[in-house]
Amino acid sequence: MEVVKKIKRMKILAIESSCDETACAMVEDGVKILGSAVATSAAMHEKYGGIVPEVAAREQLKCVIPTIQEALKQAHTDLEAIDSLAVTIGPGLIGSLLIGVETAKTIALASGKPLIPVNHVLAHMYANFIGDQRIEFPAISLVVSGGHTELFLMTNKKDLKWLGGTLDDAAGEAFDKAARLLGFGSRGGVAIQEAASKYQIEKSKYQIKLPRPMLDKNNELNFSFSGLKTAILREVNKMKEKQQFGNEIIQQLAFEVQEAITDVLVGKTLRAVKQYNAKSILISGGVAANLRLREKFISTVNNQRLTTQFCVPPVHLCTDNAVYIAAYAYFRGYAVDWREITAVPDLSVEI
Fold first, then answer.
1. What is the pLDDT of residues 200-251, one digit of tens each?
2. Burial of 211: CB neighbours in 10 Å, binned 0-12, 13-18, 19+
């Protein structure tokens, strides 16, 4: 009788605390979510108009152990059953990063489990592999979030090459700053998306056109959104002077902001796709949750009759969570001595 050897599954417990969220997840083989929990202090920060680092870190200190316990509970397991730990070491807010890093190091010391340090920005793109997605290579990966807008060439699940990034404001920052200028406080891209969806082009009395920064620079794969922010401010001030800054103008500006940012993101990404003959496009990060961005990628790929595969994670895996931290650790990470691990708030993404 032939004996079939049972293949051992790799279960990784990951901790993510780079900004205001505190997250923990248990993921098997980098693709199967066994448990995932996220605690956020976003509502607390809203009254300040943005994230207050000290407040975020204090809340994370309260939440980190309960979040780990919840992820383990969902996975119907305990620390003894995990094979490895993973933790975000940067980039991010130093106080927040330290909460996750020191917690993970303590668990590693107490349990004897190996610990894998993870680059939060690079890890975002691995949300696309959850569910064992069959992605063809080479792939162009766009990571677009509040602090980063980066393009990578991925030749396989492990090998990455940085192609270009933001020279000033990231796309997420542009959304956030536009939201504040339009009176939406700290609600950022979600508020812009909501207002833009209410805008009716055919009924508009005004014609507002914002710039598409660096879109016409054929050989560059970098981004710049600071000029767009200035253009929005100029339009807001002009309309206020004319006493025309009402709901219709706000909705039109929100629409045009969203169109300008998504035009640049799609245009630059497709330029990289053609330059490197990519078979797949991966997008990830908080801004990848934007429905107009997803729609525009799909329609552009179809309209240009490209055979390129388009991949984007579910919305809940675009915002900060520990699932993609575990996925990155499985596919690309390596364990190091826990004594050598430290938080690196300015950790580079240019590899």
1. 887 777 788 999 999 987 779 999 999 999 999 999 999 999 998 999 999 9
2. middle
Q: How many CB atoms lie within 10 A of CB 125?
A: 27
Q: Is 50 left (phi over 0), alpha (psi -120 to 50) or beta?
A: left
Residue count of the chain, please give it. 351
Per CATH, the number for 11-126+318-340 is: 3.30.420.40
Each domain of the chain, given as residue ranges in start order, spans 11-126+318-340, 135-312
User: Got the DSSP string for 271-308?
Assistant: HHHHHTT-SEEEEESGGGG-HHHHHHHHHHHHHTT---
- H helix runs in the chain, sequence order: 42-46, 53-74, 94-111, 120-124, 171-181, 188-198, 226-241, 247-275, 291-303, 323-331
Cα-flanking dihedrals φ and ψ of residue 187, to 5°?
Answer: -80, -10
Alpha carbons 310 and 285: distance in angstroms, whole number: 15
Question: CA-CA distances (angstroms) from residue 66 to 22, 169, 177, 236, 289?
Answer: 10, 35, 33, 44, 27
For the question of whether the overall pTM of this predicted structure is more than 0.85, the answer is yes
How far apart CA 39 and CA 25 sit, in angstroms, is 12
Q: Are 69 and 206 in contact (CB under 8 A)?
A: no
Sheet holding 309-311, edge to edge: 160-165, 149-154, 139-144, 280-284, 309-311
Rounded to the nearest 10 degrees, how much is the dihedral formed by the CA atoms of 315, 318, 322, 326? 100
| CATH pick for 135-312 out of 2.120.10.70, 3.40.50.10420, 3.20.20.70, 3.30.420.40 | 3.30.420.40
**Residue 343 amino acid letter:** A
Closest CA to 41 of 66, 58, 25: 58
Q: Which two tokens stand for residue 182?
A: 């339009």
Predicted confidence at residue 5, as pLDDT, reads 43
